Amino acid sequence: MLRTHNCGELTIKNIDKEVTLCGWVQRTRELGGMTFVDLRDRYGITQLVFNMDTNAGLCEQARQLGREYVISVKGTVTERSNKNAKMSTGDIEITVNSFEILNEAKLPPFTIEDNTDGGDELRMKYRYLDLRRNPVRNNLELRHQLAMETRNYLSKLKFIEVETPYLIRSTPEGARDFVVPSRMNPGEFYALPQSPQQYKQLLMVAGYDRYFQIVRCFRDEDLRADRQPEFTQIDCEMSFITQEDILNTFEGLTKQLFKSIKGIRMDKFTRISYADAMKYYGSDKPDIRFDMRFVELKSIEADAASQGSLFHLTNGKDFKLFDEAEIVVGINAKGCSEYTRKQLDELTDFVKKPQIGAGGLIYVRYNPDGTLKSSVDKFYTADDIKLWAEKFNAEPGDLILILAGKTEKTQKALNELRLEMGSRLGLRTNDTFAPLWVIDFPLFEWDEETNRFYAKHHPFTSPKPEDIPMLDTNPIDVRANAYDLVINGVEIGGGSIRIFNKDLQKKMFTMLGFSDEEAQAQFGFLMNAFEFGAPPHGGIAFGFDRLCSMFGGSESIKDFIAFPKNNSGRDIMSDSPSTISKEQLKELSLKVNVK
Amino acid sequence: MLRTHNCGELTIKNIDKEVTLCGWVQRTRELGGMTFVDLRDRYGITQLVFNMDTNAGLCEQARQLGREYVISVKGTVTERSNKNAKMSTGDIEITVNSFEILNEAKLPPFTIEDNTDGGDELRMKYRYLDLRRNPVRNNLELRHQLAMETRNYLSKLKFIEVETPYLIRSTPEGARDFVVPSRMNPGEFYALPQSPQQYKQLLMVAGYDRYFQIVRCFRDEDLRADRQPEFTQIDCEMSFITQEDILNTFEGLTKQLFKSIKGIRMDKFTRISYADAMKYYGSDKPDIRFDMRFVELKSIEADAASQGSLFHLTNGKDFKLFDEAEIVVGINAKGCSEYTRKQLDELTDFVKKPQIGAGGLIYVRYNPDGTLKSSVDKFYTADDIKLWAEKFNAEPGDLILILAGKTEKTQKALNELRLEMGSRLGLRTNDTFAPLWVIDFPLFEWDEETNRFYAKHHPFTSPKPEDIPMLDTNPIDVRANAYDLVINGVEIGGGSIRIFNKDLQKKMFTMLGFSDEEAQAQFGFLMNAFEFGAPPHGGIAFGFDRLCSMFGGSESIKDFIAFPKNNSGRDIMSDSPSTISKEQLKELSLKVNVK
What we know:
The structure is a homodimer.
Chain A: E1 18-31, E2 34-41, E3 44-51, H1 56-63, E4 70-79, E5 92-103, H2 120-125, H3 127-130, H4 134-156, E6 160-161, E7 179-181, E8 189-191, H5 197-205, E9 210-218, E10 230-239, H6 243-262, E11 270-273, H7 274-281, E12 295-299, H8 304-314, H9 320-324, E13 327-333, H10 341-352, E14 362-366, E15 372-374, H11 382-391, E16 399-405, H12 407-424, E17 435-439, E18 444-447, E19 452-455, H13 470-473, E20 482-487, E21 490-497, H14 502-511, H15 516-530, E22 537-543, H16 544-551, H17 582-587, E23 590-592
Parallel strand pairs in A: 3-5, 6-9, 11-17
Antiparallel strand pairs in A: 1-2, 1-4, 2-3, 4-5, 7-8, 9-10, 10-22, 12-13, 13-16, 14-15, 14-16, 17-20, 18-19, 20-21, 21-22
Helix pairs in contact in A: 4-6, 4-16, 5-15, 14-15
């Protein structure tokens, strides 16, 4: 080793020790006749001291050191007069006897500090410098810890990690594949896996019983913020289990990660059905760090009995918006009755934004003096509004915010408003974690454009046994044995119990509009495998990049990926993708056809 | 869980317990009024028993069970009368009360037994059935264990695993890249990494100090037996270290793997220079499970003094072959003096095979009675031959085998003969492990065809500091700080200390025939990174598939990969690669151009 110690480990216990350290020059300062150099490596910073009085030549050389120079230093551990309690090495400094410049450095284009002056584009171009900054390095160390904990936890539960292939068969179903031309098989292509779904099911057919893999997946989608063309999954599958076993096993994993990485002990996770998630939060990934559940004043979807009682709250008062609405639904913003006109206008503007799309916002102030004031006072009496306030369990000081319109759209808009209010009220803090299982997803979703059913999860997802009879009568109501793990409103993972019965699988394909030939062409090798004794099985996959960013208290996954791509799928550091040579194209039997 | 226990855990301690097991029907046997079913899962086999006397109906149903049916069984753990000491569950059986067929199975196309009747092609087509067989499952469980041990060992040494990208920039140097067309950047391509070499060096520039990754790599080469287009590496890099630190760290890892996985404690690994490996074994990956070192009777490469003494052993006796040879070199096959004429002819045929290419084989028998008999008695006297025998340290009973010709070719041929003799003499057993570091590789190799130097390892490999002056005078003699780990004649890993000095790197590129522009185009982002403070660093990569097969005592890596491809890069199970649709090609701005 070129060093005796790293830059993060020397303390008062090492006083008078002769040491050799290596690292990068973080900064140099001159103070009277002294020169101080902060020497940095992955493990910390150690202060070097040079004295003009005792060794002018060496001190002079030290003053020439530029930022980010790589040096090797020999010296003696000395107690500091001005201790720094914030640093692990803050009690000591190194009185340097000699040093060597191992490598010079050009001036970095941005500061290597926790809060850098570098913009996103510049940081990505010089990612190797950005990676030197503590916050980014901490993120990647966290990622390593999470991967290690996950592997050790699952391995102890007899899961085995099996590496599945990256060069696989392209299937047109689902998102768009990245493809890889085969030189040895001209005109043919491999695909990069969107997930190892079929392979993990094959491993269950092969009797592997408990499989996991921390695995890269690829999707050639138009990138949104926080989407990467390559991303990492914790991918799992189990045999001879029920949904309950999957939920418990991966709740166990999640709890273990929170306990060991963040020191947080979690209670049993809340569960909610998809139907209730939509009804009470307008979202299939509710943020339950705060309550603020939806309250319906009217819903045409409610059962007949309650409809009667609901309708009288809103209808027949000549307020056309409510009369014609499928749903009238709101939230109670506790303690917000004194919101100003300006604040209410902001909220109205918020819900009217095109991406949210509400027509307007109705409010009811429950004034601290017990009086009620609403934006629809001209249609409803004080007694009418009083009844609303009771439905909302509102108290003096509260502010009720109401939207009305088509059910699905209104619920979604109110979800956005609820999240906005949660943020405004400081109820969505990064250091609180509220996990939630969303279960009983619908099996199908109907696509208006193509006029057909799509599998909400994927075509191998099993319907709930008790709902199977509805496949023929009202398929849209059939619930699946499918589940998502949501933390703080972010979907961390999802999975399902799979169909392992051939006839049921065939029925599914028929309902999804696949002919036998199409099903065979796309899923043939998996369906063939199922003929040789498939066990009951199911699984789950966690988005690992997102899990890391959740643990790191950030909303951007990019900060948790060593070398991410930008929103057009480019790596600007290496300037990739790039053109390839004519010879390469020829070998691959390809022609580029760009207009 | 659909079971209370698995099929490998019930013992005499569980007698009288009511249990539910799930698994596959391995076989059914009828014996008098009894029917026995072996139920199999990943964990073992448990015997089920049905009695015609006590429950004829159930017994009758059991007799209908086909091989590989998936069933769920309820019953009572009972002590066996005929115990089977070879099975963990051999003391008990399950007296079945009821069972359910979870899934039927078609008759498998080959037997699911340790020694199957399925050929390679059939096993690959139905890989999910092949994976059910114990030997294959054991291989993959071994692989999982090796990966876990590696990760935990390196993690404890403060290595962090960083996931590097799979969609990277294509570089023409080295082997052929697999490329991935970019839809969003028409006419441009990503490449799949042949190794994360540049990224791990960037991580060192970024100060990560100790990096590892168990990572998939891709090479579009014409496949030989035991080459896969995608393969897995244990990839590592360290900063502020010398070659000695790398060797010790990864010797430590290897020892730990042997200790924990195979219970074998290993002594300090032998080291040999590349020059000595060629001189004594004719190979840069000697199998040192057995000695049988080369002995030179003549070598034009030997120093002048010893040449004089060597030449008189072979030259001037009118034996043209030896007179004209650059080298006369042989091995002593202990105890083989009584090889028959036929056996000697076989060995002669062996060395004359085109892929070995020797012109012939000279032998000397040291008969048990002390007399010497050689195939060149007509040129050499008994005294001449006696001198040879002394050089070989031969004793009565030994057989000396000698080749002559051009140095390199003859050494390589003799290496093959040595390995052949090792095998014939049973000196190359699968349960002996002889690790060896081969060090001091040459920095360059000369390519006759293109008339230029190539980097023996890669262009970032550092020359030995003491050899740097020779870069200008006799570059072919410059040794590199490069090393391979060889076990039992198989290259398990290799690496080098990297150049981190800009001027030296520039000189290397010049010597390799790169213009500045070419170097910049291919390695620009790494070279730019080096300008911002690169630390001294170096690394190593282990071939993980090969490491697994070594531990599993097999020579084929395919048996240690869950879903391997065949020698034309096809996965015959999923029939991949395959054609893709016109729409897909159009989106990618590509045309297929197959004649």
